[in-house]
Amino acid sequence: MRTAEIIALASNKLQGLRGHEFDVLEVAKPVSPAAAINLAKIVSKLSPLVGNLIEFNTCEYLNEFPEFGGWGHWHRQDPGFPDTVFRGKVTPTPGFEIKAWFPLATEITARFKDSQNHFADNNTYVALLAWLPEFLIFGKPHVADIVVVSGASVAKARDDHYHNPPDYLVIEPNDTAARTVNLQQTNTAGYKFQGTAPQFAKAEALVAGWGPQGRAYLPMHDYQVRLAELMARFPYRLDTNFAKIDRIAHPEIEAFKRRTYGTVLHGRTIGEWNRLLSRGGETAVALALADAFDIREGDGDSVVEP
Question: For 160-169, what is the mean pLDDT?
Answer without folding.
Answer: 97
